[in-house]
Amino acid sequence: MRILVVGSGGVGDAVARIAARRTFFERLVVADVDLGRAQRTVDAASAQDVVGGRFAAAVVDASSPEAVEALVREHHATHVLNAVDPRFVMSIFDGVRAAGADYLDMAMSLSHPHQDRPYELTGVKLGDEQFATADDWASAGRLALVGIGVEPGLSDVFARYAADHLFDSIDELGVRDGANLVVLGDDGEPMFAPSFSIWTTIEECLNPPVIWSADRAEAGAGLEDGWFTTAPFHEPEVFRFPDPIGEVECVHVEHEEVLLMPRWVDARKVTFKYGLGEEFIGVLRTLHTLGLDSTVPVLVRGVPVSPRDVVAASLPEPATIGPRMTGSTCAGLLVTGTGKDGDPREVYLHHIVDNAWSMAEYGAQCVVWQTAVNPVVALELLAAGVWSGSGVLGPEAFDAVPFLELLAAPTPAGYGSPWGLDERTP
Q1: Any residues with CB less than 8 A from the CB of 426 and at least 6 apart, and which?
Q2: What is the per-residue pLDDT across 73-123, written as a single tens digit (0 to 9) for each?
Q3: Looking at the domain 2-105, which fold is it?
Q4: Can you tell me the distance from the alpha carbon of 132 to that of 128, in angstroms, rounded to the nearest whole number?
Q5: Domain segments of the chain: what residues?
Q6: Residues whose CB is less than 8 angstroms from the CB of residue 221 and which lie 6 or more positions away in sequence, other chains included
Q7: Cα separation, 84 vs 95, whole angstroms
Q8: pTM above 0.90, yes or no
């Protein structure tokens, strides 16, 4: 296996650091628009490379399918992992397909709200552009494994596991993410510093959230009629996360799991809620009110500038805030329905990463590490032939057990990152 990672930001950097400890691949090239940044990632990974000599840096314009295709061919990459923000999904996706390699990503092609009724009906949904090419990928015998980060990704693996091993029927698959992370400024006081790309965060949190309902699908023409939208920050609920996080207020957010899970897992309802917190929601509302969430350039002293890019440039890089951060992050899936014994059941499948641990072990803050570990696990399963397939597939299309076993197994056999299952009262 020869891997090309496009993007050496927080997640791409963590991918290389994690992969350096594994032996399943022959070569890993880290490509970025900034060669210096890619080289820093390669230097850090090479220092931990258990084989030696497997990492290289390259330059790429992720907005150009032709540039991506050329780089894939130059390095004879068999698998390409997209580790840049979602606005570049289709250019990388198309470039990889043209080059004849397999593709993985952690976020899918962008959505576009319904023109007239954005808070009721879907327009172009997350991933629609990718799924439209599924037959082409399948006929070429190539795999596009989409949404294989942590969210989407691990929660989708949990959905497959719950359907196969824990439940006879599922009422709701409810992704619930939260954290107790705090980032301190130079003055020692908490500061606003998102632990993930603010560009992506704005996209997710201010777009109309999507919900899937089997009732709507059955009343309509099938799967596509099951998806509908609501207003941002809708239906807040206080969710109890495992210790040390505790209770966090969560709200509906647009996310890929809702677009992926119904395609492969039977459930009456699928939702995604994120624990943003009152302050974070307030900042996002202000950005929206001021138009600073817009990607449409405005003229500033005669120079066209995207307001969202200005916001992103004004905040610290997520990869750099680890030393200032304390706390843990939790990604998980609340599943309700009828258990294998015929009784009502409710479980929360979850994965918690402590920032102090991820920084000490990998030099990566916990949110980017938790996102990065999952595609590396998937790549290892693909290299071993444990996972295989063709077409555009989500994590739900594969057997969950090998993934969860490899993730949790102690190092060096596995990744030493156990997941948990909490039984809750239905």
Answers
A1: 336, 344, 345, 346
A2: 999 999 999 999 899 999 999 999 999 999 999 999 999 999 999 999 999
A3: Rossmann fold (3.40.50)
A4: 6
A5: 2-105, 154-367+419-424
A6: none
A7: 14
A8: yes
